[in-house]
Amino acid sequence: xxxxxxxxxxxxxxxxxxxxxxxxxxxxxxxxxxxxxxxxxxxxxxxxxxxxxxxxxxxxxxxxxxxxxxxxxxxxxxxxxxxxxxxxxxxxxxxxxxxxxxxxxxxxxxxxxxxxxxxxxxxxxxxxxxxxxxxxxxxxxxxxxxxxxxxxxxxxxxxxxxxxxxxxxxxxxxxxxxxxxxxxxxxxxxxxxxxxxxxxxxxxxxxxxxxxxxxxxxxxxxxxxxxxxxxxxxxxxxxxxxxxxxxxxxxxxxxxxxxxxxxxxxxxxxxxxxxxxxxxxxxxxxxxxxxxxxxxxxxxxxxxxxxxxxxxxxxxxxxxxxxxxxxxxxxxxxxxxxxxxxxxxxxxxxxxxxxxxxxxxxxxxxxxxxxxxxxxxxxxxxxxxxxxxxxxxxxxxxxxxxxxxxxxxxxxxxxxxxxxxxxxxxxxxxxxxxxxxxxxxxxxxxxxxxxxxxxxxxxxxxxxxxxxxxxxxxxxxxxxxxxxxxxxxxxxxxxxxxxxxxxxxxxxxxxxxxxxxxxxxxxxxxxxxxxxxxxxxxxxxxxxxxxxxxxxxxxxxxxxx
Length: 561
Known about the structure:
6 strands; two-stranded antiparallel sheet; 561 residues; 18 helices; mainly alpha; two-stranded antiparallel ribbon
């Protein structure tokens, strides 16, 4: 049993914890993540022996400082995000983790991984004030990052003309999609229940095996829903209702579904069912399903007398405890609920991101191999009767995935700092996998359009709200600074992004970058002047030779030759 301090407290104030180890918390991810990383390394080494050119591309794509304009658009986007988050992680992660570890005084013994989060911060005035300052600086850095990302993606989608749907079609699509998203949220909902509900002894009939499966497999399950179910379902709903594919609407459907499945629904269920919040799990507990189960009365062996009046009470029994006191407790204040959110939901997000980083690139490589593509196309042609189907990578789904990952960082990057390096690894490994697919396996892209990057401002608002809620309810020192300073720093971050854009000319690519970009894309696609499926124009051979000459002159000029 772990309690907040050594002083005497009433029994109802005690919080009981099971002793957990790293293996108990993360053992379910060790095997798939190890297999994923080993498979990725073996695949890249095997492909890297094919040609010196491919090995050069792998080295450049894995370098955080290689100019991003050399690569295809989705690789550029992932490298851009990886670089900015890597720079931010250098100072942010060691500082916050050190502060959280130093100020972790909430429990004498607790879950090991939570010492690196804000869940156990308590009882250290200096650390709490320092964390408040770091939170304000983080809000400014996040707003600057969003603004710069919006400019980067605006340049990528320049010239695209998004398809549209009518107001009636859009209403029908959303009326279908919201219930669909709620159904897709069932597995994450069961995961939240599994963190509090006792196995077997519950009114839902959930066994220990079922709860254990969702508790330890939540990360892979969430990845499967986000990557394998949400994109095709979104395309299907839009195509069937509108009669044509509207990528702009499909991306928004994907973003909303992932927001509900990964964040909003689990967050709401933690508030409702967790023991440290409203403890509604007790209403699903077997003994609480029987009325008056805990109505316990005690009988005194003597008569009770009211001292004020001297009146002898007619009964010598009193109620020691009531059913409602056990099965219908109120909201637990004093900062316990925000800590439970970081515990339950933070672990779910870290589980998912670890699986995305380690297994996602391997899936991308395998699904783009010649044999797998041929098998998928055979099924589409022979069984599904779609003779024109060709395997391709949807840039809309990939871009929506990037935005969702950035959203998780914006929401939980403060409470769980280790998310940042995991996200950098995910972006980097996926960029390498995509570059291999383009150069070695002839992967084609489709459906790139304008994307709602402004949605990330809502994600920043959610993250700032979570941070402010923790400071206010946990009564940490610096809560006034956080409530007033985060909005001000966010505005300053936008101004800094504008100044950086004007000073360093990031609004447009320079002529040198454009020439090198055209040359690199022409090396990947040799379609003699026709546009490829990713929307990038291949270069005529005569222009290609001229660009090679210009590139040689540029490189010689940079080297001083």
